Protein 1
Amino acid sequence: MNNARNDVIISLMKTRIEKIDKLHIDEKIMKRAGKVLRKGGLVAFPTETVYGLGANALDEAAAKKTYAAKGRPSDNPLIVHIADVEKLDTIALQVSEKARKVMEVFWPGPLTLIFEKTDRVPFGTTGGLRTVAVRMPADEIALALIRAGGGFVSAPSANTSGRPSPTSAEHVADDLNGKIDMILDGGSVDIGVESSILDMTVEPPMILRPGAITKEMLEEVIGEVTIDQTLISEDSGQAPKAPGMKYRHYAPKAQLMIVEGETGEVVKAIKQIAYEQTRLGYRVGIIATNETVNSYTAGVVKNIGTRSNEHSIAKNLYKVLREFDEEDVSYIYSEVFDEAGIGNAIMNRLEKAAGHHTIQAQEITKLQKYRRILFVSNSDNCRGPMAAELLRHQSLTQEYEIGSRGMVVLFPEPANQKAEAIMRSQQMTLETHEATAFDEKDLDDETLVLTFEETQKWKIVSEYEHVKNVYTLSEYIEDERVVHSSPGEPLVVYGENFELLKELIGKLAEKLNEEAKHV
Ligand code: AMP
Ligand code: MG
């Protein structure tokens, strides 16, 4: 939205970056920062939600600079930040009892309230609206700056419009260096998503943007609270009541997609997609959690926090989205998060960042029949591990966990030495192999069990209940040839067996790839 001339003027500016210790706020720096605001300049500062880009809210020209620096559409109003409740009446009219109650409980804090504005607030600050959004932040640096700057600081998030909001001073500098006067660096923010917005000009009050203060928390204090319909259903056909909510926001450069469903299913689906896309030569990003991060085998995986405390996810959300911009990924897949508590705000921001692109995990997982393939021999030290390793070297269109088991394994012995010698001559190894006994838990819906001989198959079928997906290798690939056990035979016999096995495993790979197309 900047015109070219504005760009030139703004980019000539030197941005001072000042580190501030929250516990020992340097009064001299705050005084200087306050002076910048009083003179109509721009100062970015930390709040408990995200970093804000401060200007004197009562100075229309200053507000206009904010829009230019951010490239923000001018119909997207700014939130006015105050440090003392007594200042509210200067900018807001008809402050109700209910409003006083919520302020008492939640201010200072991550809650913005909408009121009728007074004439003191220029339309340049409110995007032409007759209402004004007001918040008292909890961050000590923010409060000190607001007081030093004259008491009324308009502050949108201190990012370039459309980019993820900044949760550290580095993020602010990445977007706005050279375009604003000063950045107060108070370290990383606490909450990580923008304030909840509550419209107090309607009855019952209405949530226009979800944040850390939830509907339930508000209702406990003032009774019924409604939610802007556009937050609930994407196609309500209405414009959101908070003008800013209509823009594509918070977006990373790569296309982000949210994978929905039960967590186990979501992980499987993302694994499947990441495997396929990596195979096709794409670099993909994955947003995972503490609980799931180790499940992924392909893609650039980032741990966003723990599901047991979604506040950790809120805190890292924008940082992770920004980090992906450095990774040069084509697509980002995010796990879906629980909507309870702050989860509602997380999902709201994530959905905006994704432009509402979602994928149902089950639609993906149903396209893959097996996820694990086990080769079963007698002692699991020769044919089985060889077959497994050969299959791992095949080009497979779907990802499988590939392993081997034995029907009579008494201890975890290493692979047969002759088998290892043959594998080495083929640039492969069974070095890390340890024989493992077949177990009932190896039988499940997603596991394909392939034995070498009928005897092993019948042993499994007769010993266990619920036997599914158990075949001999010959039966499965419809080739009569069988690789027999060769203990004590000379190396040449191992070599011959290897050649046959290699051929059969090649056919198996073809069959798996063929089947994958038809599911
Ligand atoms: P930001 O400061 O970037 O978090 O954006 C401020 C948000 O507050 C935007 O979504 C605005 O649309 C919203 N907002 C500010 N003032 C008003 C107002 N008077 N009425 C409704 N929404 C507002
Ligand atoms: Mg913003």
Protein 2
Amino acid sequence: MKKTYRFLGVIGLLGLLIVGLSACGSRKALSQQDVLTNDKASKTITWGVKADTKLFGLMDVKDNTIKGFDADIATAITKKILGKDGKAKFVQVTSQTRIPLLKNGNIDAIIATMTITPEREKQVDFSNSYFDAGQSLLVKKGSSIKSVKDLNKAGTKVIGVTGANSVANIKKYAPKAQVLELSDYAQAMTALKSGQGVALTTDNGILYGMASQNPGYQVVGGAFTKEPYGIAINKGQGPFKKEVNRALKEIEADGTYNRILKKWFGNVAGFNYKEASR
Ligand code: GLU
């Protein structure tokens, strides 16, 4: 009797295995799926955008939508690729989560203050750059920190965000400083305000957005790096990348890009947005 049950059990397991395997076979691996074909069919492009970064991608709690320059550029590109009724869907990313979310196929592209760097190019593809930022510092008004050189002293604490290349840049430009890494820009600002570091470092555009919300703080030290922003796409998605670059060119040529640039940066005191524009 016992033997019969065991036999039936084995048959059952084998059955489950076969069903499971065939289900896997009918769905193509992510790396073999064509993002452009899928997005055209669903009339939707899923973008990874920041939700913690004023001016680029910030969650508006009043209507629960993400707003900013990156979000508007993503919407404009979506319309150029999919037509007027194409939908841009936004998924919240941070500096740390954006590449894993892209690689897992949770998002089709990243448009999230992301610098094109040789390291990242080993993992993902980038569109042509659409914004030229530069790394800078945010300090309390009246601070003795005036430039990145002032940070290069043992015991000096600087605040950054995990996954941002700004952290590695500080290790290069002020190797004696200690970098305290927080998980997003909202937390980094809170850490600066509570005195956990003497400066917060990331790109100038992001810092000007923070300064506009926190009048006791100012951007200092100029731009000490070059941070060209690109749209990151999975490797092997040539047709999609081509369409994104075509759409970028079109919005630059028809005035859409400039309208969006002025909307977000036209009135940001101290920030020369024309230098950042393509
Ligand atoms: N542009 C820099 C980067 O890509 C800093 C901004 C960010 O954290 O997204 O890492």
